[in-house]
Write a structure and sequence with these properties.
The complex is a heterodimer. By secondary structure, chain A is mainly beta. Chain A has a single domain, classed as 3 Solenoid (Pectate Lyase C-like). In chain A, about 10% of the residues lie in helices and about 45% in strands. Chain A contains 4 helices and 21 strands. Chain A is globular. By secondary structure, chain B is mainly beta. Chain B has 2 domains: about 120 residues, Immunoglobulin-like (Sandwich), CATH 2.60.40.10; about 325 residues, Single-stranded right-handed beta-helix, Pectin lyase-like (Pectate Lyase C-like, 3 Solenoid). In chain B, about 10% of the residues lie in helices and about 45% in strands. Chain B is built from 3 helices and 29 strands. In chain B, the strands form 3 sheets. Chain B has a 21-stranded parallel beta sheet that branches. In chain B, strands 2-8-7-4-5 form a 5-stranded mixed beta sheet, with helices on one face. The chains are: A mainly beta, B mainly beta. The interface between A and B is large, with 64 and 76 residues.
Chain lengths: ~350, ~475
C-alpha cells in the first residue's frame, strides 16, 4: 500500500502542470433553494427543488457545501444532473462522527422505504459526497439495521465517483451497463456493490471496502458489528454483466470479497457474467472469491492477493457447482496468506480454475 | 444559457418567496406585484459583468405587467457595480452588474417605497473563472460561439490564466480554438459522458462543443498548464452510421506544449481525436469514439501518461442502434485506437478497446529528422476486444515496450494476430507481454503470437 502512495505521489509530482485543476462542480447551491445543512432541518424538499431546477435548465451540477444535510426522503436524479460536493472526495472520517460534525458535504439518510438516490437519466451522477446513516445501530450492536441501497443506477452513461459511505447496509446497486464507479470508500455492512442486468460494460476503479464505522470515534477493531460483517458482508456481488472491468479493488473484513454468481432474475438471456480485473487485494475474509457461474470467456484477474480472516478462513478462491453455466476463472499472479479450512484453491468439482501462483 | 439560468432561478425564487403575502386588489382589476423574481447566472467571474432579469410577480406567481414602481439594487458585495434605480417595462427588465469580491454573494432588487416588495439572486463570484456566457456564447446549438469562446480564453490568458467554464449546453462552432498556457477549458459537471440513446446534436446532457471546422485541429493546447476537462465533443455534420465511410476531420485536440492535460472528456463521432506532439502530457478518463485514430503520439522526448481510456463505438449508442452498423465495418478495416511513434517512456494503464482494425500500433514517425524515430514504455491492464490485430510493433527504442495484464480478443473470423512483430523499422522491435490472455486462437490467421522475423517477442505466463 505504501508503495502505491509513493508511486501516486511521484506521478503527481511528475505530471507537470502549472495550473491546479478546478473542482468540477459549478452550479446552483442547494443552500440557495433553502437547504439548511444544519444536521436537523429536513432538507429533502429543498434538495428536490434544486434537482428539479437543474433538470429544467437541461442539466447541470447541484452543489452541496461542507455541511450536514439531514433528509427523510429519497431522490431521483434525472438526465444530465450531477449531485456534487464543493470539495474533493472521497472522505475518510477517522475520529469524526458525521452525524454531528461536518468535514465534508454530508447527506444524512434516514429513509427506509426506497434507495436513497436513483440515477435515472443519461449522464447523471454523484461526485464528492459523504453519505451517513445517523439512525444506524452503534458498533456495539450485534446486527445492523436494514436499509435499501444508498444508490441505485438504472440509466446508462452514469457515474458515481469520489464518494464515501460510512455505515450503510447496502451501498451501490448497478442495474444497467455503461456505468462507471470509481474512487469510492465503502463502509456497507451487507453488500458494497451489486451488479445485475448489465448488457454492456461496467467499470469499477479504486474501490475501498473498509470498516468505516469503526473509525468514527477511533474504536478498536473488531467491534461486535464487525463480527456480523465477517459472517455476512460481501464487497462485490456480480450477477449478469457483459464485461466487467475492475481495477484497484480493496476489501477488509468481510465474509466474502467477491461473489460471481447467477442473477435471481431468470428472465435474462444470460444470468451470469464475465470480465477482467487487476490489483485486487482481499484482506481478512472467510472467502476471497467465490464463483458459481460465468458466461464465456469467464473472469480473468491479475495481481490478486487474498488474506484469511484469523480462525475463519475457508478458501481464497472457490469454484462452486450448481450455476446456470460452467464457472471459469483465471487468477494470474495470485498470492494468498493465512489458514484456509478448505485449502487456498480447493479443486473445483466441475468447471475451471487456472491459478498462476506467485511465490 | 441565459434562458436556462432564468428558468432555474425562477424556480429558486418561487421556492423562497412563494409564501409571501399578497393578492388581487379588492373589486378586481389587474393583480398587484407582491414579489420580484431575480434570475441570472449561478456563478460569475469576479470582475466580469453579467446580465440578470428582474420580473414583478403577483401572489399567484403571474407576471404583474402593471407594476410601475422604481426598483433599487443592493448587494452583499460592497464593491459590486450595480445598475441605477430603474423602472420595469411591462413588469420586467434586464440589467447588468459586476461582482468584484469572490465568494457567495447576493444581488437584491427592492421597490423604492415598499421594502417588502423584493427578490434576490444568489451568485457565486469566482476569482479566475471566465464563464463563456459572460463573453456572449449562446450555447443554443445554432449560433456560432467560436469567437465568444476564444474571447473568454483570451481574457483568461490576459488575467494570467484561469478556467474558461462552459455550461450544460450545445456550443455550435465553425472555427478552431487555441488554448494558451495556464488556461483550462472546462465543463461544470463531472465527465466523461456516455450518451447512450441521446443525440448530442439535439440534446445537451453535458457541456457540449459541436465541431464543424475542417481547416485544422479544433483545439490546440500550446502551453504549460493548459488543459481540457469535462467536455463532450460532437461532430454534427459527420455521416450517419448507415454510411460506408466517415467524413475526414483534423484531430479534435492537438497538444503542442508540455505540462498539459486532457481529462474526463468524451468524443462521440470524430475522425481523429487526440494528437500528442510533446512530452510531459497527461491524458486520462477519456471515452473515445473516433473512426480512424483515437490517439497519436509523436515528437515526445519525455514521458506521456495515458490512464483509463475507453475506445468504443460511441456513435452506435446514439439512438441505440444495433451493432454493427455500416460505419462499424469501415472502422473494423481502418481504425486504430493508439498509434505511438517517437516516444521516450510511455506510461499507459487501464486501456480498453472495442471494435477496431488494430488496438495499438507501435511504429516509426514519418518525421525522419528525429533521432530516434520510435519509442519505448510500459503498460498494464490493456483490454483489446474485437480487432483484426491486437498490438502491432514495427520498431522500438531501448528497452522496448513491456506490458502486463493484457487481454486480446479477435473480431470473429477476421482476426489476424494478437501480437505481431514486423520487420522494416528503423530499430529492431522488442515487446514483452507479461500475463497475457487471448481469445480466438482458431481465428487468428497468423496465430496468436506469430514468431517475429526481427527483434524480440517475449510472452510470459500465457494463459489458456
Amino acid at each position: 500500500m505504501k508503495i502505491t502512495f509513493i508511486v501516486v505521489l511521484f506521478w503527481i509530482l511528475c505530471a507537470g502542470s502549472g495550473t491546479e485543476a478546478r473542482a468540477v462542480c459549478v452550479g446552483a447551491s442547494v443552500n440557495s433553494f433553502g437547504a439548511k445543512g444544519d444536521g436537523r432541518t429536513d432538507d429533502t424538499a429543498a434538495i428536490q427543488s434544486a434537482i428539479k431546477a437543474a433538470s429544467s435548465a437541461g442539466g447541470g451540477s447541484v452543489v452541496f457545501g461542507v455541511a450536514r444535510y439531514y433528509t427523510t426522503g429519497t431522490f431521483i436524479v434525472p438526465q444530465g444532473v450531477v449531485l456534487c460536493g464543493a470539495i474533493e472526495g472521497p472522505f475518510d472520517v477517522v475520529g469524526i462522527n458525521p452525524a454531528v460534525t461536518s468535514v465534508a458535504p454530508t447527506l444524512l439518510i434516514t429513509n427506509t422505504s426506497k434507495p436513497f438516490l436513483t440515477l435515472q437519466g443519461v449522464s447523471s451522477g454523484v461526485t464528492d459526497l459523504l453519505f451517513h446513516y445517523p439512525g444506524q445501530v452503534p458498533t456495539s450492536a450485534s446486527a445492523p439495521t436494514v436499509y435499501p441501497y444508498t444508490i441505485l443506477v438504472t440509466a446508462p452513461g452514469t457515474k458515481v465517483t469520489r464518494s464515501t459511505v460510512t455505515n450503510a447496509y447496502n451501498f451501490l446497486d448497478i442495474e444497467v451497463g455503461r456505468t462507471m464507479a470509481q474512487d469510492l470508500f465503502i463502509g456497507a455492512f451487507n453488500t458494497g456493490v451489486h451488479i445485475d442486468h448489465t448488457f454492456d460494460r461496467v467499470t469499477l476503479r479504486n474501490l475501498f471496502n473498509q470498516v468505516f464505522w469503526d473509525v468514527v470515534g477511533n474504536q478498536p477493531y473488531p467491534q461486535p458489528i464487525d463480527t456480523w460483517a465477517l459472517n455476512h458482508g460481501t464487497g462485490l456481488v456480480v450477477d449478469h454483466v457483459d464485461s466487467l472491468e475492475v481495477h484497484d479493488f480493496f476489501v477488509f473484513s468481510r465474509f466474502t470479497g467477491i461473489l460471481l454468481t447467477d442473477s435471481t432474475d431468470t428472465s435474462q438471456a444470460a444470468t451470469c457474467g464475465y470480465g477482467a480485473g487487476s490489483d485486487i487485494d482481499l484482506d481478512t475474509v472467510q472467502y476471497g472469491i467465490v464463483v458459481t457461474a460465468t458466461n464465456t470467456p469467464g473472469f480473468k484477474f491479475t495481481n490478486v492477493d487474498i488474506g484469511a480472516a484469523p480462525g475463519l478462513g475457508q478458501a481464497a478462491v472457490q469454484v462452486k457447482t450448481g450455476g446456470s453455466m460452467l464457472a471459469k476463472i483465471e487468477i494470474n499472479g495470485g498470492s494468498q496468506r493465512g489458514v484456509w479450512a478448505l485449502g487456498a484453491y480447493p479443486p473445483p468439482a466441475t468447471d475451471t480454475i487456472v491459478v498462476n501462483i506467485l511465490p | 444559457m441565459r434562458r436556462f439560468s432564468q428558468l432555474l432561478f425562477m424556480a429558486s425564487s418561487l421556492s423562497i418567496f412563494g409564501a409571501c403575502a399578497g393578492g388581487t386588489p379588492p373589486g378586481g382589476g389587474p393583480p398587484l406585484a407582491s414579489q420580484f423574481s431575480v434570475s441570472g447566472p449561478t456563478s460569475s467571474g469576479a470582475g466580469l459583468a453579467f446580465t440578470f432579469t428582474v420580473t414583478a410577480l403577483d401572489a399567484a406567481n403571474n407576471l404583474a405587467t402593471n407594476y410601475a414602481g422604481m426598483v433599487q439594487f443592493t448587494s452583499s458585495d460592497p464593491a459590486a457595480k450595480l445598475p441605477p434605480a430603474s423602472k420595469l417595462v411591462n413588469g420586467t427588465g434586464m440589467f447588468s452588474a459586476t461582482l468584484t469580491s469572490a465568494g457567495f454573494q447576493t444581488i437584491t432588487a427592492t421597490d423604492a417605497f415598499s421594502p417588502s416588495l423584493m427578490g434576490s439572486l444568489s451568485v457565486t463570484a469566482v476569482a479566475g473563472e471566465f464563464p463563456v456566457s459572460s463573453f456572449g456564447a449562446k450555447g443554443d446549438g445554432q449560433t456560432d460561439d467560436t469567437a465568444a469562446i476564444q474571447s473568454a480564453i483570451n481574457a483568461a490568458r490576459a488575467a494570467g490564466g484561469g478556467s474558461v467554464v462552459l455550461g450544460v449546453a450545445r456550443y455550435f462552432t465553425t472555427g478552431i480554438l487555441v488554448v494558451p498556457a495556464g488556461v483550462v477549458l472546462c465543463g461544470p459537471t463531472e465527465g466523461p459522458f456516455d450518451v447512450q440513446g441521446i443525440d448530442p446534436t439535439a440534446t445537451a446532457v453535458a457541456a457540449t462543443l459541436l465541431v464543424t471546422s475542417t481547416s485544422g485541429p479544433f483545439l490546440t493546447l500550446e502551453g504549460v498548464g493548459a488543459g481540457v476537462t469535462d467536455l463532450l465533443f460532437h461532430y454534427p455534420n459527420q455521416v450517419t452510421t448507415s454510411t460506408s465511410a466517415p467524413n475526414v476531420y483534423p484531430y479534435t485536440i492537438l497538444v503542442t506544449g508540455p505540462g498539459t492535460k486532457v481529462a474526463r472528456d468524451t468524443v462521440t463521432n470524430a475522425y481523429n481525436f487526440l494528437d500528442i506532439e510533446s512530452g510531459r502530457v497527461l491524458a486520462e478518463d477519456l471515452f473515445i469514439g473516433a473512426f480512424d485514430t483515437g490517439i497519436n503520439i509523436d515528437h515526445a522526448s519525455d514521458h506521456v501518461t495515458l490512464r483509463h481510456l475507453v475506445h468504443s463505438v460511441f456513435w452506435d449508442i446514439i439512438g441505440n442502434q444495433p451493432f454493427p452498423q455500416p460505419i462499424d465495418t469501415w472502422v473494423l478495416s481502418n481504425g486504430t485506437a493508439l498509434v505511438v511513434r517517437r516516444m521516450d517512456s510511455l506510461e499507459v494503464s487501464d486501456f480498453f478497446v472495442f471494435e477496431r482494425f488494430s488496438g495499438m500500433l507501435l511504429t516509426d514517425s514519418s518525421d525522419a529528422s528525429q533521432n530516434p524515430t520510435c519509442g519505448y514504455g510500459t503498460g498494464s491492464d490493456i483490454d483489446i476486444e474485437g480487432v483484426q490485430y491486437g498490438i502491432v510493433i514495427t520498431a522500438s527504442n531501448t528497452p522496448g515496450y513491456k506490458f502486463t495484464n493484457v487481454y486480446l480478443e479477435s473480431q470473429g473470423d477476421s482476426g489476424v494476430a494478437a501480437v505481431q512483430v514486423r520487420a522494416g523499422g528503423s530499430l529492431p522491435p522488442k515487446i514483452e507481454v507479461n500475463g497475457v490472455s487471448q481469445s480466438g486462437p482458431e481465428t487468428w490467421a497468423d496465430g496468436a503470437f506469430p514468431p517475429p522475423p526481427v527483434g524480440e517477442l517475449v510472452v510470459v505466463y500465457p494463459l489458456p
